[in-house]
Amino acid sequence: MKVAMFASESNPLCKSGGLADVVYSLSAELAKEGHEVIIAIPYYKSIANNPAYKFKKGPSFTVYMSWRQQSADVYTGVIDGITYYLIRNSYYFDRDKLYGYDDDGERFAFFALACRRLLKVIDFQADIVHVHDWQTAIIPCLVKEQNRDDSFYAKMKFVLTIHNPAFKGMIDRFFLNDFFGLDDSLYDTGKVRFQGMVSTLKSGLVYSDKITTVSPTHREELLQGGSSQGLDGVLNLRRDDFVGVLNGIDYEEWNPSKDPLIAKNYDEKTLEEGKHLNQTDLLSAFHIKWYGGPVYGIVSRLSWQKGIDLVLTCGEKALNSGANLVILGNGEYGLEQKAEALRKAHPDTVGVYIGYNAALAHKIYAGCDYFLMPSLFEPCGLSQMIAQRYGTLPIVRYTGGLADSVHGYDGVADNLQVDGIGFRDYDERGMDYAMGIAKDLYANQRLYYRIAKRAMGLDRSWAVSAKEYVKLYKSLLK
Question: How many CB atoms lie within 10 A of CB 43?
């Protein structure tokens, strides 16, 4: 198959969140399986200024946006079997950040139009055009409305993946024609209308042939409306074409047997020795002491969504019973300050690093006994799967992908088809329950390591997820 991925970011070139991981990892796995894959992303300033990447200048073409005429300069290169096409326009993308500008609607309107044109310029007649989130979601609408009589696009099928429904690409109805040259009737009939404006994400829900999101449970949550951001109505109309596919993790980056950033490499057979040596290294890195209890860790954006208040409150109770807590992340100022206050109150047992440090992140996954992820909502989550890969048991709240990827131990000794610990109610009582289970399990080291080895043996690779996407793609080409 010929697959075109259109997105606003992709590893290893630029990343602000999990979208970049999915676009790259899925594409790399498809390429390994022999499919011809291209990725198109904007040529951001951060990419242009990175000396590690050299791209060849390709074709240039004009993108027409009503009265605007903007140039698109294409740069190309191959990474891990994927051909990248970078769309350069200094007016829109020569900026310090990927997003967060008042004209983001216009910037990504240009990019979506450029992606459609790119296919013809490079003569890539894709079988599948896979678009991601609001930035590229309008491409199926553009092709089906404006290129329906063009044989080049006639057989292309479109898949949209929703990574974050909170961002819907909201623009004034005036820009439907002013940016895209689309007729007002699309607004009047409701195909692109959402809450009195145009939503590029909704357009993708209406016009794409299939819709996916990043876990089966998150699909159900979106259909039920609890976390759909108001999109449950149109999603229920398309429910037969809407599937949840659990993300995978990069097994090259996250491999305890080869990881160069941890003190001691290990596998399932050497887990106990590796865990002890890496735990000593972790505690040393944070200048804290071990008093015989479990070591809890978290690598996260410090935001209300991630359950950080529960981590701090319930974590302090565990500290009073001899545990350690290590926190790596940044985000909301108030939560950063609360984390620092906890460290000051428990300087011997709490380690805090405000920011992101790749080496420390790897040390936390390898050196902790438990990884905390009590999210209020979590479409998929990758950290819990990375923790499992390192034989560190995740403690999660059952929501979204956390519910799909963690089967929790409930304290019953013969219930061993498990690979972590979970709870349902988003409150201190629920978190205390889970950490109580964790404390009791830790006291039985033989049982703890039996479960940890089972977690390590899970297949959370992108090979599993990619097979689901290939099946989905092929269903459209019959």
Answer: 24
CATH 3.40.50.2000 location in the chain? 2-248+463-476, 271-459
Show the tokens assigned to 471: 């099946």
- By C-alpha distance, which of 407, 391, 392 is closest to 457? 391
Residues 282 and 75: their CA atoms lie apart, in Å, by 42
What is 2-248+463-476's CATH topology?
Rossmann fold (3.40.50)
DSSP state of 73: E
pLDDT, one tens digit per residue, over 381-438 is 999 999 999 999 999 999 999 999 999 999 886 667 899 999 999 999 999 999 999 9
**pTM, 2 dp:** 0.92
Residues in the chain: 478
Quickly name the fold that domain 271-459 has: Rossmann fold (3.40.50)
CA quadruple 187, 193, 195, 198: dihedral, nearest 10: -90
Q: Are the beta carbons of 7 and 13 closer than 8 angstroms?
A: no
Write the DSSP symbol of residue 55: -
How far is Cα 369 from Cα 313, in angstroms, rounded to an integer? 19
Whether the predicted pLDDT of 328 surpasses 80: yes
